[in-house]
């Protein structure tokens, strides 16, 4: 009888202990401290990437193109409100490849970057590639290389006076510049001693030199060659021996790799088929009387005993020329397009 009582007591104790453990587990699960009791949540999906400009243009059938309309022969706004130029025709070609229509958005050099990022799919305005611009946007592959870089334009009677950076960077020289682009940056970097005049209208700025209100402007070689045709009395100074290395490319919103790759591929195919060269010749050959080679491989043009300017410093190049510590042989062949540029200047 005593043994039976003990057995019952042990059994009761075991039951009580089991009940206590079950209650504790239930309480733990109830408070959520035992995560294993809950099913694991599924992986949280990553946020969707914004749609590519490529998809937007294809869907909307509209290519939004930022351009200034003040930089012949690349872009010019005519009195009737229509744009024309090398880059305008090429933007129309890009739009056509997508079954879209180019819609041009007027901007300025000062607002070019902000407008491109906020309003446009691409900017076409003879844009020079720079690291500062690259920090905020993408560039396509360059379509104008090396020879089309900074050189002076002056009154023809003053052509011999302004051959070098040192001759221009004098207190008695009035250097005029359009604000917001690489012309302004170049002038402020290298002409700190001259009288710097900011003039906002890039269309009529060359008249200021003709009228004696300024002495010199430094801009891209192709523009100086065109403006000397449009403004008799102005002369481009050594357009085949520019001050600075440079390239032109189209500006794209940053981060859109699919869009960048499409535009690069369109550009490559346009060059391969001859379409790109036909557009370039339409504007440059018509104005200068010779064929222009825009897609020559980029090579560094060297002229000895002439000032050479990188983005950081001015170099005087002896024979052999030394830039950035690297000796460059004086036997290098001349840049292929020099004769063409010289003929533009004299034709």
Describe the structure concisely.
By secondary structure, the chain is of the alpha+beta class.
* Overall geometric form: elongated
Main CATH class of the domain at 53-146 and 246-297: Alpha Beta
Could you tell me the strand content as a percent range? 15-25%
Question: N- to C-terminal separation?
Answer: 132 Å
The third-level CATH topology of the domain at 53-146 and 246-297 is D-Maltodextrin-Binding Protein, domain 2
Mean pLDDT: 76
Question: What is the chain-wise order of helices and strands?
Answer: HHEEEEHEHEHEEEHEHEHEHEEHHEEEEH
Helicity level: 25-40%
As a whole number of angstroms, the C-alpha radius of gyration is 33 Å
Continuous helix count:
12
Q: Structural class of the helices, strands and pairings? A: alpha+beta
Low-confidence stretches: 9-16, 18-37, 288-347
Q: Please give the CATH architecture of the domain at 53-146 and 246-297.
A: 3-Layer(aba) Sandwich
Largest sheet: 6 strands, mixed
The CATH superfamily title of the domain at 53-146 and 246-297:
Periplasmic binding protein-like II
Q: State the oligomer.
A: single chain
Query: What's the total number of strands?
Result: 18
């Amino acid at each position: 009888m005593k043994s039976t009582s003990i057995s019952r007591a042990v059994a009761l104790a075991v039951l009580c202990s089991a009940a206590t453990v079950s209650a504790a587990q239930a309480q733990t699960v109830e408070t959520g401290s035992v995560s294993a009791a809950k099913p694991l949540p599924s992986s949280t999906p990553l946020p969707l990437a914004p749609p590519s400009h490529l998809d937007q243009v294809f869907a909307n059938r509209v290519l939004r193109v930022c351009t200034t309309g003040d930089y012949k022969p690349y872009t010019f706004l005519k009195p009737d409100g229509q744009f024309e130029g090398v880059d305008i025709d090429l933007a129309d070609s890009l739009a056509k490849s997508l079954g879209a229509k180019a819609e041009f958005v007027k901007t300025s050099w000062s607002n070019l970057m902000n407008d491109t990022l906020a309003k446009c799919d691409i900017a076409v305005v003879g844009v020079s590639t720079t690291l500062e611009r690259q920090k905020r946007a993408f560039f396509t592959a360059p379509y104008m290389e090396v020879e089309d870089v900074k050189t002076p334009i002056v009154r023809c009677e003053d052509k011999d006076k302004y051959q070098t950076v040192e001759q221009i960077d004098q207190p008695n020289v009035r250097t005029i510049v359009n604000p917001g682009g690489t012309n302004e940056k170049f002038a402020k970097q290298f002409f700190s001693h001259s009288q710097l005049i900011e003039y906002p209208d890039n269309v009529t700025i060359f008249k200021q030199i003709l009228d004696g209100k300024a002495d010199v402007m430094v801009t891209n070689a192709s523009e100086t060659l065109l403006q000397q045709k449009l403004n008799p009395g102005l002369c481009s100074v050594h357009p085949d021996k520019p001050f600075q290395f440079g390239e032109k490319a189209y500006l794209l919103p940053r981060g859109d790799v699919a869009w960048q790759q499409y535009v690069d591929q369109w550009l490559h195919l346009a060059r391969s088929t001859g379409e790109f060269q036909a557009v370039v010749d339409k504007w440059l050959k018509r104005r200068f009387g010779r064929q222009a080679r825009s897609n020559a491989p980029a090579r560094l043009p060297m002229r000895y005993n002439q000032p050479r300017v990188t983005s950081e410093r001015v170099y005087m190049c002896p024979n052999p020329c030394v830039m950035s510590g690297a000796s460059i042989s004086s036997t290098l062949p001349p840049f292929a397009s020099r004769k063409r540029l010289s003929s533009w200047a004299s034709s």
